[in-house]
Amino acid sequence: MEMYLTILTLTLVALHTVSVFAFYISKIKTVSFCGVLIFGLVSPYVFSCMINELEIGIYFRVLSRIFKYYCIISIIVAINVIKPFEHYIMCFVILALVAIIDIYRAYMVEYAKDMYRARLDSGVMKNVLKFEKYVLFELGMLKQSELDTHHETVKTFWKRGQPVSLDPEMSFRRWSGKKRPGQIRREPLKDLNRDELADFLGFDRNEIGENIIDETSESGTEQLFYRTRNDNEFDIVSHQGIRMLKTITKVPTLSHLENFKTVKQLPNDELARIAKKYRFRTIFDEQQHSKKNYDPSLLGTITVQSLRKRFEVQHAIEIYRMISHGIHGDVVYDNFRWNIRQLNIERGHLHSSIDDYKHLKKVLTTFSALIILVIILSLSPLLLKMKIPYLRIPTPMLLFGFLAILKDPLTSFIFIIYSHPFDSGDRIVIRGDTHMVQKINLYNTTLQKWNGELISISNKWLANHITKNYRRSEAQKWEIFVIIASNTPVSKIDELKKKFKSLAKKHRDDYPSITCNVVGIENSNKMKLVVYVTHSANFQIGLYRWKRHTLFMQYLIEYLTELNITYLPMDTPVKVDGVSVNDELFMDMCGTN
């Protein structure tokens, strides 16, 4: 598409240049003028479309506006040749001033576009774009041979429209190497032998073992039991079709049964009960598993080795790095499901951010064009001799009225376009309240509170208040205050610091550093201990934030108990009727000093 647009643009530029020369050498000026006019109006539009499509530098995009004025000058000269008019030179003076202002305006517009695009190509959004090709591969929209050559950009992501969510169950089965026997979407038309069963289940024929049982039950339904080569799965095949009564993770030896004749006498419901019983032999007990309603094909783990069965090494490493974000240990289905859910959310946020970017770009272009128009009208003293009455507007009055009207929009414009403190999907804190950015407009921004409420806040108001942005923050620290007894030995506090240091080394992927210090004494009978926990990532994703924090609190309580340090965790003092409840609790715990 870009190549064809470039060829078309260069062709139109050449045709316009040829039409100009043809106009000067032609004897029939009116006919040749039509060619100059048509190519002079069409060529700049096509040229601007080409500039927007190509990935080129900001200075080339800005200076490309000169071509537009080249076309305008050629049309003015052609008009003057056909019918000379007064103030011919003045038109070029005005056009030169407008060109200088327009090029400066174009630089501001392109600079704002580059800043916005750079923010979309960084941080979490950058990782989303890198991972998108694997999502497209799983959705069947990209071939495996194209993974090495496909390069996802903001533009290509936007052109596909609203992103399709990735199914975590299906992806987990593929990436963990697990298969789901019995997940059949069609019924067989006839009885199946071993090879046909393998084809129908999606297994290789060598994976299906020999018949264990082949019999007809009392109800007249033919039952075939097959075992896979790796002894991991066990299915029941019926005459009506393939139906998985229960998938057994470990095939039972049936040693408690006398022989196969005993099995032949069992009814269907008893066979289902046996399958259900042995399913939980090495995983969970039946009661716990029934609550969680696990699918046995979701009980594996995703590793680089399992991904290498489906992808090349570099792709497997890149996928694992993305899906293991915020996870300490193996990537089991629960963690994978949360990560894919968050990935789908971030993909939606990226699309919303691009949508906001497109909208603001249009507003920015219109707004800057309006400023150019006002500046041109403000040059009315230079146009007085052209005898156009409605342009005889005093320059100071026009500028004063224009700036007064655009004061509020201009404030919001500068705040959103150039300050740009957040994007759609960012978690921000304003005056102590946490919000998620949903929609950004020129005049206001729509935010969502933690309880689901949507609120709309003026951008002018936001520009005058401090906004904390979690997504754009680096590794963040958590501050925990713990009240301990005043008679706690210094040696125990030093030992606690050593344990924190060892914990940070053990969980270096979660906590780069953990330190603690005594910061004060309260009421002469207790000390305030503050613990600084540095998280490996920011607090944009609340799931990982609270997961890491909960893990640390468990270790903290364990260490305090192990060192026999009497403690009372608190964040702020609690008082009832002027009496400190914390003081009373602490006295009950360790007595008064």
From TrEMBL:
<feature type="transmembrane region" description="Helical">
    <location>
        <begin position="87"/>
        <end position="107"/>
    </location>
</feature>
<dbReference type="InterPro" id="IPR010920">
    <property type="entry name" value="LSM_dom_sf"/>
</dbReference>
<keyword id="KW-0812">Transmembrane</keyword>
<dbReference type="Pfam" id="PF00924">
    <property type="entry name" value="MS_channel_2nd"/>
</dbReference>
<dbReference type="GO" id="GO:0005886">
    <property type="term" value="C:plasma membrane"/>
</dbReference>
<feature type="transmembrane region" description="Helical">
    <location>
        <begin position="62"/>
        <end position="81"/>
    </location>
</feature>
<dbReference type="GO" id="GO:0006820">
    <property type="term" value="P:monoatomic anion transport"/>
</dbReference>
<feature type="transmembrane region" description="Helical">
    <location>
        <begin position="396"/>
        <end position="418"/>
    </location>
</feature>
<comment type="similarity">
    <text>Belongs to the MscS (TC 1.A.23) family.</text>
</comment>
<dbReference type="InterPro" id="IPR006685">
    <property type="entry name" value="MscS_channel_2nd"/>
</dbReference>
<dbReference type="InterPro" id="IPR023408">
    <property type="entry name" value="MscS_beta-dom_sf"/>
</dbReference>
<feature type="transmembrane region" description="Helical">
    <location>
        <begin position="363"/>
        <end position="384"/>
    </location>
</feature>
<keyword id="KW-1133">Transmembrane helix</keyword>
<feature type="transmembrane region" description="Helical">
    <location>
        <begin position="30"/>
        <end position="50"/>
    </location>
</feature>
<keyword id="KW-0472">Membrane</keyword>
<protein>
    <submittedName>
        <fullName>Small Conductance Mechanosensitive Ion Channel (MscS) Family</fullName>
    </submittedName>
</protein>
<dbReference type="InterPro" id="IPR016688">
    <property type="entry name" value="MscS-like_plants/fungi"/>
</dbReference>
<dbReference type="GO" id="GO:0008381">
    <property type="term" value="F:mechanosensitive monoatomic ion channel activity"/>
</dbReference>
<feature type="domain" description="Mechanosensitive ion channel MscS">
    <location>
        <begin position="412"/>
        <end position="472"/>
    </location>
</feature>
